[in-house]
Please model this.
Amino acid sequence: MFRACSPHDRLDEAHSQLSELFQPILDDLFCVADTCNAYVLKRGASAIAIDIGSGRWIPSLHEIGVKRLEWVLLTHTHRDQCSGLYDLDRETCRVAVPQHERHLVDGVERFWGRRRTFHNYNQVGDFLSLPRSVPVDEVLADFDPFRWRDIDLEILPAPGHTPGSIALLTTLHGRRVALTGDMIAAPGAVPRIHDLQFGYADAAGAELLARSLHLLLDRNPELLCPGRGPIIEPPEPAVGKLLTALEALGRELFHEGSLSPDVSFIQVSGHLLESKSASCSWYAVLSEDRHALLIDLGYDTGTEGNVHAFDYRSRFLPHRLEALRRHPAVDTIDAILVTHYHDDHVIGIPYAQKRWDLPVWCLDRIAPILQEPHRFNMPCLLPTPLRVARTFTDREQFTWRSVDFQMHDLPGQTDLHSGISFDLDGQRYLAMGDSAHFRDGRLSHGHIIFANRVTGENHRKVAARMLEIEPTVLLHGHHRRQVDEGGRIEGRADTPVTRDDLVEFAASSDRLADALRDVVPDEPDWRCRADWVRIDPYRVPVGAEAVPVTLIAENLLDRPIHLALRFVAPEGVEVDPPIAEMLIEPGAEHACDHLVSVLDPTACSPAILCVDVVMDGRPLGWLAEAQLWHRGDWPS
Ligand SMILES: [Zn+2]
Ligand SMILES: [Zn+2]
Model:
């Protein structure tokens, strides 16, 4: 057992002096003032607890007729919320933690081993994490229900106090009750200010908290049960006061723009809306009979996306999508067309599929990375598998509610990227995600990230296809066409283009290809790409059964190559067959199947499988690798 000394003894004394340790809030809902407020929800002689603080009150549960504590749920994993986990009877009591903070509970040693303390620009308050691991029985995923007996708790994302915080919402005796952790401690107040800063001098936590508070209010709670301080009732004035206070704090911390979510849309034309976003721009094509077809579904603000910089998963807050569903021109959203797989363009899709089972439509080349992201090791990858309902081949045309669309293979910013063209309201639109940017008023190739399997040819292909399509308006994923007088982005990414712009784009693609060739005169494509030999899947879920993997080799040179490939397996891992030999023509790809068997899958967390490469008799080393994970338990 993990025990602290004197402070707990003093708490024992305090507890024994309290006449009523368990303060009734509603029938069967009690609050215990500990190192945080712990809430006990009971049914007969059983109960669950939301946050437990030191947990020193648990042996006293009989005072309210509780014989069994069956679950502990945490709103976040700060020590003052849950140090009592070490003393829980885990034979009878299970533990559920927010999905995005699991790594701070059952793998916290890894966190402590990696947490930057020198050159530290990460101000997230996770130094208040547990000192050592505690097993986790279940994770609490955003927007999922947690069911216990007749009680349904909805899990709401509540980033702010910590990046992974949640709030729990339920109806008890006809009243909407929210258990809010440390989102709010009193009307207009938070428990601690320093938690609201994630980066160096930023107000990221404050912005996310403001957005989380808006989301909470949208759910119409009647009673807030905070992690600190008294019950808050009614919530609106108390939260409103906090939102005002956060705005003022944001201004003093020089946070750009308002902290509150902007849910407005730009009316690009009669039947086209654009999210007025400071991060990814996504679009809604509208039909006369009030159906909508979305193109991408990404973040609203950079802050939502940038949480990854602090080693946390980015989360989707659905304010604007919910606003679209309330839009007077929209009754039904039919589907989401995806330009490419980058998380900032698809982060909203798991929510849309969880809530309304919205179908995803995409180019066939892109479907695998959306459906089975574990197979790939490419930048900006969302770990959540998406359900793809319909795929299209390159140049395939389809009609949606009398609008004609065409799909295009547009391998610009990433090799797995598409474009979507359609004629609407007198314009020819091309939604092209991130494959073009305006720089200094000139259309040019987009950001180059070589790990997206990019070579000099990628943007040349985009240029050729754009000249063929001849769009009059580009629908960009991020690029802003206008700035206001203060030089600030206005959030508008639709951009009229002429044929001269498209020719200029082709010229910039050629300049890029030339620049790459100048750096490596021979073999420039080959030297752009790190993964020309790779194992598919990249993350291999291993168990008792042997797992098939595919070894893929691409020839990016302009001559045939001979490859001798040999798996370099960690101890206890066997690959059958262990070697592969092949002759590959220029521009071709070779794939061969192998079986991976693991003696002790539980030891894979992960184990690394490499591939030794000999090309034309020249040894190149262990160039490719895959990660073997027990049961596919890779961190998300
Ligand atoms: Zn906390
Ligand atoms: Zn992108």
